[in-house]
Write a structure and sequence with these properties.
- There is one protein chain.
- The chain is an alpha/beta fold and 339 residues long.
- The protein is 40% helix and 20% strand.
- It contains ten helices and twelve strands.
- The strands form three sheets. The chain has a five-stranded mixed beta sheet with strand order 3-2-1-4-5, sandwiched between helices. A five-stranded mixed beta sheet has the order 10-9-8-11-12, sandwiched between helices. A two-stranded antiparallel sheet has the order 6-7.
- Strand 4, helix 3 and strand 5 form a beta-alpha-beta unit.
- Helix 4 packs across helix 10, helix 5 runs antiparallel to helix 8 and helix 6 packs across helix 8.
- The chain is globular.
- The model has no long low-confidence stretch (mean pLDDT 96).
- It binds 5'-O-[(R)-(carboxyoxy)(hydroxy)phosphoryl]adenosine.
- 5'-O-[(R)-(carboxyoxy)(hydroxy)phosphoryl]adenosine binds next to helix 5 and helix 6.
């Protein structure tokens, strides 16, 4: 492939249909995101069958808008982890477009996209991550702690054993009668609440880097069952603090244990203000720099998929190797080191 090649990225792993064009691994020419929130709102969560149908209905128009008249050298799509139906729609669209344009097709890991998205600033990829680092990818479907030695060189430290952090926010919002997606709603309510009002547990799971958030969610449901006239802001502030403290404590501990200087935080929950503040503060105290994804690119988007593909292709090219095209979809895909 020529130097400074242009990638069209496609994202359809959950409830956002997105396409983006990235030139030279730096310049984001377009990033179109169709969010299915309205389709899933009344169910307080993503309904997989509805998500697949909405991806199928919107993906052509989203790609057409993002592509415009840009010339592309490669098509990339998120091949996992994610909902099977959405992944299939993304792959078929990507494969058809690549065949039509006569360009190669590459599958990339959605979680790597969330990680590399931390390099974007104002539609440009301008601040490289500083390796080795510890990454926290925290979204509605995943909560993952990684040691990242370099681009494409990983060790998975831990992941959630049950609910992802964003999923716990969404479920607690539902218990409280707040709209979907729950994360921003819970956060908003928490601003007016007392974080010490209810002592929800901090599931630190000593001896492992894994997470578990279903216990906090159950503690909230028992609290609501057993108390009358609860203060919604107090419950939100206490719950948010319990989740954020758990995420921050484990991430900082892992960063110190693995002797890195930087932490990167990506994924939808990275938009949470308390998480940003607490990670920043505790990171500074521990002598670590913290890189967050920009808020507008924290939720699922195709810009991050195009960037992950660029990194993968560029690395293979500079090593004089054939890249791993890897276009099989895998709903449970793990992050693993590039060959
Ligand atoms: O990354 P994302 O768009 O989708 C997945 O790949 O899952 O993340 C969506 C998740 C939802 O669970 C949403 O409630 C959560 O991110 N979220 C937040 C905030 N903004 C979005 N959670 C906590 N605080 C927020 N401010």
């Amino acid at each position: 492939m020529k130097e400074n090649f242009t990638v069209l990225g496609i994202e359809s792993t959950c409830d956002e249909t997105s396409a983006a064009v990235l030139r030279g691994g730096k310049e984001l020419l377009s990033n179109v995101v169709y969010s299915q929130i309205d389709e899933h709102k009344k169910y307080h969560g993503v309904v997989p069958e509805l998500a697949s149908r909405a991806h199928a209905a919107k993906i052509a128009a989203v790609i057409e808008t993002a592509l415009g008249d840009y010339k592309i050298d490669c098509v990339a799509f998120a091949s996992g982890p994610g909902l099977p139906g959405g992944l299939m729609v993304g792959r078929v669209a990507a494969e058809t477009l690549a065949a039509f344009k006569g360009v190669p097709l590459i599958g990339v890991n959605h979680l790597e996209g969330h990680l590399f998205a931390c390099e974007f600033e104002e539609n440009r990829v301008c601040r490289p991550l500083e390796f080795p680092l510890v990454a926290l990818v925290v979204s509605g479907g995943n909560t993952e702690l990684l040691y990242v030695k370099d681009y494409g060189v990983y060790k998975e430290l831990g992941r959630t054993r049950d609910d992802a952090a964003g999923e716990a926010f969404d479920k607690v919002a539902k218990l409280l009668g707040l709209p979907y997606p729950g994360g921003p709603q819970v956060s908003k309510q928490a601003l007016a609440g007392n974080k010490n009002a209810v002592p929800f547990p901090r599931p630190l799971l000593p001896g492992t880097w894994d997470f578990s958030f279903s216990g906090i969610k159950t503690a909230v449901s028992y609290y609501l069952r057993d108390h009358q006239n609860v203060s919604v802001p107090d419950v939100c502030a206490s719950f948010e603090t319990a989740v954020v403290e758990t995420l921050v404590t484990k991430t900082i501990k892992a960063a110190l244990k693995y002797k890195v200087k930087q932490i990167a935080v990506g994924g939808g929950v990275a938009g949470n203000t308390l998480l940003r503040q607490m990670m920043e503060e505790k990171g500074r105290e521990a002598g670590l720099t913290v890189r967050f994804v920009e808020r507008k690119l924290s939720s699922d988007n195709a810009a991050m998929i195009a960037l992950a593909a660029y990194k993968k292709l560029q690395r293979a090219q500079s090593a004089g190797k054939e890249p791993e095209w890897n276009i099989n979809i895998n709903p449970n895909m793990k992050v693993r080191t590039w060959r």
